User: Which sequence fits this backbone?
C-alpha cells in the first residue's frame, strides 16, 4: 500500500468516525432522547494501571454532557461546529489548522465561540477520547514542533516536498534533528544505538553533545523541552518498541521533573486516553534523584511552598505509588531541597558525562 | 489623723483629668484611630439631636486635617439651632453637664459626658483649647469661644470670648486638635458616617478626608423623623436608689399624688393600691418615707398590676426609611425591612427594627455584614459582645437559604441591619458599643430577623426557579435549534424535529400527529405524552372540514358551521402516553394542510406540539 493511499484511508476513517458522532446526536433527537455524550472523567482519581500494557489510562468513572443544562447544551453545539470544521474544512479539503488557529476560527460561531484556547484544546482532546482517534487524524496540529533528537540513527521522513533520508548525527547541525508534529510517517532505516537518553533541558543536551556522549556510549539524545510534546513522547515510544532500545530519563531533581518522567513513562492525566499510544512504561529514571542530591553533595535550592504542595500531591498520585517513588519523594520533603541537572557543573564540565551518568547507567544495568 | 480623713484628702485631689486618664477606655478613648472616631461620634450625635429637636433637616460637615504624624485637627459644623451664649462654655467645657441625664426619652446621647470628654482629650493631648463658634439666629451675633476645662474644678476656663463674622444662618462649629489617627476601612470615621447616613436618611453628611477627598452622604428624604415624646419613668424599671432620691426631692406633700405624678401609668386608684400593698399611709409625706418603707414601696410596684409604659416616646426610623437608607449606600437586588411593635424591658419601652439586603455587589463568600444601631447611632466596636450579634447567631440561617458554618454569623452576599430604639439602651459598658443580652430584646430581634429570613427565602427560591426556567428557555430557544440545524447540515439531511426533546426538557405534554396514507384515505394517529411530573387534564380538539372515520376512542362531535369539532377528554399521569387514532378520507398531499391540533384547559407553557386555546 502506498503512503498516499494509506493517508486517504485514514482520512476517510476519521470522517466516518466524526460523522458517526453527529449521527448519534441526530438519532437522539429522533428517538426523543435529550442529546448527550458520555466521557470518562479526566481526573487524578480516575486513572488506573492497565495490566497488559503497563500504562495509566482512564478508569470507569464517567461524566455526562447533556443538553439538559445550558453548559452541556453549549458544549454539544460547540462539538457540532468543531466536527463540521474537521469534516468539511479539514478532511474534505486536505487542509489542517493549528490548535490556536482553531480557536480563532470559532470567532464566527456566535454562541458556539470559544472563550479561550484552553477550551478548544480540551474539546479536541474530548473528541480524541470519544472517537478513539488522535488530533493528527483530524488534521489538527500543535503550535510548536516537537523538540530535537541527536544520535546514531538514520530515518526517513515524508515531507511536503517528498521523502528525506536523514542521519541524525551526520546530516544535521549541532542543534540536532527536529521532530515533526506527526511522527507516524517517520521510518527508522538503521541505527547503531544502545539506548535512548531523554533529557529535560536543552543546556544538558548540548553538554552531552559537546562532550561526545552520544558517540562514546552509542546513545540517542532526545530533548524533552520541559513537559514533552506528544510527538516527542510518541517517537521515544516508537524507538523503544520498534528498535527495542532501552529508555532512560534525565531531568532536574524537583517535583515538576518527577512529573515529566511520569508522563514519559506512564502517561499524563490530561491525555490518559493516549497513554497506550505515547507512554513508554519500560523507561527508567536516571536522575537527578533525591538520593543523588545527598550522595553527590550537589548545590541545591530550598523547596518553596508550591514545591512542597506538588510533592505532597504526588504522594496521592497513583502513578507514583511505588516504594521507589515514595522513598524519593519523602526524602526530598525531608531534606527540603531540590537540584538542577546543571548542578553537576560544580564538579567540572566533564563530571556529568564521565562520572555521574556512567555510574548510574551501570547501576541500572543499561551499559 | 484618722485614716479615713487622709483618704478623703486624697480623694479630693483626684482631678477630672486623672479620672479621665483612668477611665479613658470605657469612655471610648483608647487607640488613636478610636479617639478620633469617638470625638466625631460625640459631635455628630449632638448635632443630629439638636437638629431634630428644632425640626431642622441636618446638614453636617466634618473635616479632618493631618497636623503632624500623629495628631489631627477635627472640625465639625452643623446647621442646628445653635447654643445661647451663656451655655456654650458649660456645654463644651464641663463634664456631665447636659439636659438629658434624667430624661426618659429616646435620644442619642444619654449621659452628657460626650462632647466635653472629647474637649478634655483634645486639651490633654494637644495643650490647645477647643474653638467654638455658635449662632442662634440669622440676626443674632456669632459667638467665638476658646475654651479649656479646669481639670481641678471641672469648670470651664474661657480664654477668648468675642463676636465674629460668620456667614451662616445659624449653627455650631467646633474645632479640636488632638493626638489621633485617620484610618480607612473597618471602624473608620468614613464607615461610621456611612452607617449613620443609613439610619438618618434625613441628614446630609459631608466628610473632607485629610487628603482633601470629599465624600457626601446625600439625604434620601426630606421628612423629619417623628419627635420622641418625653415620658415619666415607669415604676417597673426604677431602681431603689432612684426611687429614694425622687421621694426626698419631691415637691408633693402626700405619697399618693407623688406616685401619680412622678410615674407613668399610675392613676389615683393604682396609687392607693400600691400604698396599701406597701403598708404606707397614702397621706404620708414622701420626704418622710423611711428606707424600710421605700423598700416595701419598691416591692409593691411588682405586685400591683400596672400597665406597660406608653411607647409613643419612641421614634423608629420606619421600614420605608431604612430601605431608602440601605439602597442609598449599597447596590443590592433584594431588600426587606420590618418595624416590630414596641415592647418593654424592665419598665423601659423599646422597639426593634431590622432590614436584610441581598445580592448586588455585596461580597459573595464572606460573612454577612452586621450593621448595629442603638437610637440611630452606629455601633462599630465590640460586635462579638452585643445582643444583636448574638441574636443573629442564634438563628438557623440555613432554613432561610443562607450558609452558616456552626452557630456563627451566616455567610453570603447580605447585610443584616438591626436598630434598637429605647428610652434606655442597656449597654454593656460606658463606651456604649455593645447592647447587653436582655432576653426580651434578644427575642424581639430574633422575631424580626426570622420574619425577614422567611421573605429572603421566598425571594431566593423564586429567583432559583426563575433562573431554571430562564436556563431551559435559553436551551430550547437558542441552543437546541442550532444543534439540530448544524447536525442536519453536516449529514446533508433536514434538521431533526426538536419538539420531543423540548417537551422532555420542559417537562411538558408532547402532542404529535402523524398521517400515513392507507389505500384511498389516510390513517391519523395523535400521540400524547406527559413528560412532566404532575397529572394533566385537558381536551384535545380536531377541527376539520372532513368527517372522521372509525375514531378510537370515540370523540364528542360539535357542528361549527361547515366544520366539525371533534373533542376528546384527555387525562395523563406523569410519564403516561396515550394515542388517538382515526381515518380520514383525504389524499396524502392534503395531509400537510390539516390545521394544527388544538388543546383547551391547560396552560400554554405546558404543551409542546399543539395550539393552546383557553376561553
Assistant:
Amino acid at each position: 500500500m502506498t503512503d498516499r493511499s494509506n493517508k486517504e484511508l485514514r482520512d476517510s476513517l476519521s470522517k466516518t468516525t466524526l460523522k458517526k458522532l453527529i449521527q448519534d446526536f441526530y438519532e437522539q433527537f429522533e428517538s426523543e432522547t435529550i442529546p448527550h455524550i458520555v466521557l470518562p472523567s479526566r481526573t487524578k482519581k480516575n486513572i488506573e494501571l492497565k495490566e497488559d500494557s503497563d500504562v495509566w489510562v482512564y478508569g470507569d468513572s464517567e461524566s455526562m454532557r447533556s443538553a439538559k443544562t445550558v453548559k452541556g447544551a453549549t458544549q454539544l453545539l460547540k462539538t457540532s461546529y468543531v466536527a463540521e470544521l474537521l469534516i468539511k474544512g479539514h478532511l474534505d479539503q486536505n487542509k489542517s489548522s493549528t490548535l490556536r488557529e482553531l480557536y480563532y476560527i470559532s470567532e464566527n460561531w456566535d454562541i458556539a465561540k470559544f472563550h479561550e484556547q484552553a477550551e478548544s484544546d480540551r474539546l479536541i482532546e474530548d473528541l480524541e477520547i470519544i472517537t478513539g482517534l488522535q488530533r493528527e487524524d483530524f488534521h489538527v496540529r500543535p503550535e510548536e514542533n516537537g523538540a530535537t533528537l541527536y544520535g546514531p540513527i538514520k530515518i526517513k521522513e515524508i515531507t511536503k516536498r517528498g521523502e528525506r533520508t536523514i542521519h541524525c548525527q551526520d546530516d544535521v547541525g549541532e542543534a540536532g534533528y527536529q521532530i515533526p508534529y506527526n511522527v507516524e510517517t517517520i521510518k527508522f532505516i538503521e541505527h547503531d544505538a544502545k539506548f535512548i537518553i531523554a533529557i529535560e533541558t536543552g543546556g544538558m543536551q548540548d553538554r552531552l553533545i559537546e562532550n561526545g556522549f552520544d558517540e562514546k556510549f552509542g546513545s540517542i539524545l532526545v530533548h524533552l523541552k520541559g513537559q514533552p510534546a506528544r510527538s516527542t513522547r510518541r517517537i521515544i515510544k516508537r524507538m523503544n518498541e520498534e528498535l527495542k532500545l532501552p529508555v532512560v530519563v534525565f531531568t532536574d531533581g524537583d517535583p515538576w521533573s518527577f512529573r515529566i518522567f511520569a508522563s514519559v513513562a506512564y502517561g499524563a492525566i490530561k491525555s490518559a486516553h493516549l497513554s497506550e499510544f505515547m507512554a513508554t512504561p519500560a523507561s527508567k529514571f536516571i536522575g537527578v534523584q533525591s538520593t543523588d542530591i545527598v550522595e553527590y553533595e550537589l548545590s541545591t535550592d530550598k523547596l518553596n511552598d508550591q514545591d512542597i504542595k506538588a510533592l505532597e500531591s504526588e504522594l496521592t498520585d497513583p502513578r507514583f505509588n511505588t516504594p521507589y517513588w515514595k522513598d524519593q519523594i519523602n526524602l526530598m520533603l525531608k531534606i527540603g531541597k531540590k537540584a538542577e541537572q546543571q548542578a553537576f557543573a560544580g564538579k567540572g564540565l566533564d563530571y556529568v558525562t564521565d562520572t555521574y551518568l556512567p555510574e548510574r547507567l551501570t547501576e541500572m544495568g543499561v551499559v | 489623723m484618722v485614716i479615713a480623713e487622709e483618704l478623703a484628702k486624697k480623694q479630693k485631689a483626684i482631678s477630672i483629668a486623672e479620672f479621665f486618664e483612668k477611665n479613658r477606655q470605657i469612655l471610648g478613648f483608647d487607640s488613636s484611630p478610636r479617639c478620633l472616631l469617638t470625638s466625631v461620634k460625640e459631635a455628630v450625635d449632638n448635632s443630629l439631636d439638636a437638629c431634630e429637636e428644632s425640626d431642622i433637616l441636618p446638614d453636617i460637615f466634618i473635616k479632618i486635617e493631618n497636623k503632624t504624624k500623629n495628631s489631627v485637627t477635627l472640625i465639625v459644623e452643623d446647621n442646628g439651632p445653635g447654643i445661647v451664649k451663656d451655655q456654650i462654655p458649660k456645654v463644651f467645657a464641663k463634664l456631665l453637664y447636659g439636659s438629658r441625664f434624667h430624661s426618659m426619652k429616646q435620644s442619642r446621647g444619654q449621659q452628657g459626658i460626650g462632647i466635653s470628654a472629647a474637649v478634655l482629650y483634645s486639651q490633654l493631648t494637644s495643650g490647645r483649647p477647643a474653638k467654638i463658634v455658635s449662632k442662634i439666629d440669622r440676626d443674632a451675633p456669632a459667638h467665638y469661644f476658646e475654651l479649656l476645662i479646669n481639670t481641678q474644678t471641672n469648670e470651664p476656663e474661657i480664654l477668648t470670648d468675642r463676636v465674629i463674622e460668620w456667614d451662616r444662618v445659624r449653627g455650631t462649629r467646633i474645632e479640636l486638635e488632638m493626638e489621633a489617627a485617620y484610618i480607612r476601612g473597618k471602624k473608620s470615621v468614613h464607615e461610621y458616617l456611612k452607617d449613620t447616613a443609613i439610619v438618618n436618611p434625613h441628614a446630609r453628611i459631608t466628610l473632607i478626608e485629610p487628603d482633601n477627598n470629599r465624600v457626601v452622604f446625600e439625604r434620601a428624604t426630606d421628612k423629619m423623623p417623628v419627635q420622641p415624646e418625653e415620658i415619666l419613668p415607669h415604676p417597673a424599671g426604677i431602681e431603689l436608689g432612684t426611687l429614694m432620691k425622687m421621694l426626698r426631692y419631691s415637691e408633693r406633700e402626700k405619697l399618693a399624688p407623688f406616685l401619680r405624678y412622678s410615674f407613668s401609668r399610675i392613676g389615683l386608684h393604682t396609687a392607693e393600691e400600691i400604698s396599701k400593698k406597701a403598708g404606707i399611709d397614702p397621706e404620708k409625706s414622701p420626704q418622710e418615707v423611711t428606707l424600710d418603707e421605700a423598700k416595701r414601696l419598691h416591692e409593691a410596684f411588682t405586685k400591683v398590676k400596672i400597665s406597660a409604659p406608653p411607647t409613643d416616646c419612641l421614634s423608629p426610623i420606619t421600614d420605608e426609611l431604612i430601605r431608602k437608607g440601605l439602597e442609598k449606600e449599597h447596590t443590592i437586588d433584594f431588600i426587606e425591612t420590618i418595624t416590630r411593635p414596641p415592647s418593654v424591658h424592665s419598665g423601659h419601652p423599646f422597639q426593634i427594627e431590622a432590614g436584610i439586603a441581598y445580592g448586588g455587589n455585596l461580597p459573595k463568600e464572606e460573612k454577612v455584614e452586621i450593621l448595629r444601631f442603638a437610637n440611630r447611632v452606629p455601633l462599630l466596636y465590640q460586635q462579638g459582645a452585643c445582643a444583636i450579634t448574638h441574636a443573629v447567631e442564634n438563628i438557623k440561617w440555613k432554613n432561610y437559604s443562607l450558609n452558616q458554618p456552626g452557630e456563627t454569623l451566616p455567610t453570603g452576599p447580605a447585610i443584616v441591619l438591626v436598630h434598637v430604639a429605647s428610652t434606655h439602651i442597656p449597654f454593656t459598658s460606658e463606651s456604649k458599643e455593645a447592647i447587653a443580652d436582655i432576653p426580651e430584646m434578644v427575642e424581639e430581634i430574633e422575631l424580626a430577623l426570622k420574619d425577614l429570613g422567611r421573605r429572603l427565602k421566598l425571594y431566593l427560591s423564586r429567583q432559583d426557579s426563575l433562573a431554571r426556567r430562564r436556563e431551559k428557555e435559553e436551551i430550547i430557544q437558542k441552543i437546541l435549534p442550532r444543534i439540530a440545524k448544524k447536525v442536519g447540515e453536516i449529514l446533508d439531511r433536514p434538521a431533526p424535529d426538536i419538539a420531543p426533546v423540548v417537551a422532555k426538557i420542559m417537562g411538558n405534554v408532547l402532542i404529535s400527529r402523524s398521517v400515513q396514507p392507507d389505500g384511498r384515505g389516510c390513517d391519523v394517529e395523535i400521540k400524547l405524552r406527559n413528560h412532566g411530573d404532575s397529572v394533566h387534564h385537558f381536551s384535545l380538539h380536531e377541527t376539520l372540514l372532513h368527517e372522521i372515520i372509525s375514531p378510537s376512542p370515540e370523540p364528542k362531535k360539535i357542528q361549527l358551521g361547515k366544520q366539525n369539532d371533534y373533542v376528546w377528554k384527555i387525562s395523563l399521569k406523569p410519564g403516561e402516553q396515550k394515542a388517538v387514532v382515526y381515518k380520514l378520507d383525504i389524499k396524502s398531499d392534503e395531509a400537510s394542510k390539516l390545521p394544527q391540533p388544538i388543546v383547551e384547559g391547560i396552560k400554554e407553557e405546558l404543551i409542546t406540539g399543539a395550539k393552546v386555546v383557553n376561553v
User: Anything to note?
Assistant: Residues 235-303 of chain B form a domain with the Helicase, Ruva Protein; domain 3 fold (CATH 1.10.8.50).
